[in-house]
Amino acid sequence: MNIAFEQKRLIRQFNEVEDESVILAIKNILESDEQKPLIEKIPLAYAPDVIGFNNRKYILNYPLRCLVEQGEDHFIIKYEPLDIYAVGKNMNEASDDFCEEFYYLYQRVASMEDNNLSDRFIVIKNLIKYMVKEIKDGSKK
After folding, report:
1. Residues 61, 130: one domain?
2. Is the same domain home to 82 and 56?
3. Looking at the structure, do residues 89 and 58 belong to the same domain, yes or no?
4. What is the pTM of this model?
5. Distance of CA 141 to the CA centre of its chain
6. Same domain, 7 and 59
7. Does 85 lie in the same domain as 55?
8. Which residues on neighbouring strands pair with residue 46, listed in sequence order?
């Protein structure tokens, strides 16, 4: 492919465009962060159906469909209904952090009386208790 020829051909085609929305779309593509690979712009998924931490496994009624965002040097896993946000240098670290956050949230709110919780945490408590089908303690044999 002759790059100079292709550049000239694209410039001629661009000069023929009269629709402002098309011009803005092309401009946005050209001005986007060209340094990042395209795959980083695609949201990733994380959907555990078992969450393990501290020798305890939470068997869930259904997979938690979480959103994963990839930064330049970190991953973030979000599950907004429970206000869980986990971060790690790689996906494994973020997953470990997510499991730890889930564990601590469950330990904290599941056993608390509703009158000690805000309305938001009452909703979270009911939701997390509904999500967990079974808890297996790995220290008991």
Report:
1. yes
2. yes
3. yes
4. 0.66
5. 35
6. no
7. yes
8. 66
Q: Domains in the chain: how many in total?
A: 2
Domain that holds residue 119: 39-137
Q: What is the pLDDT of residues 74-86, one digit of tens each?
A: 899 999 999 899 9
- Specify whether 65 is located in the same domain as 23: no
Locate 35 and state its tokens. Answer: 């340094």
Name the 3-class secondary structure at 8: helix
Interatomic CA distance for residues 95 and 107, integer angstroms? 18
What are 16-61's pLDDT values in tens digits?
667 777 667 666 666 665 545 544 444 567 899 999 999 999 999 9
Helix axes 91-109, 119-131, angle to 10 degrees: 110
Number of other CB atoms surrounding residue 130 within 10 Å: 11
Q: What are phi and psi of 100, to 5 degrees?
A: -65, -45
**Residue tagged 């393990």 (tokens):** 52
Half-sphere exposure of 12 (CA within 13 A, CB side): 6
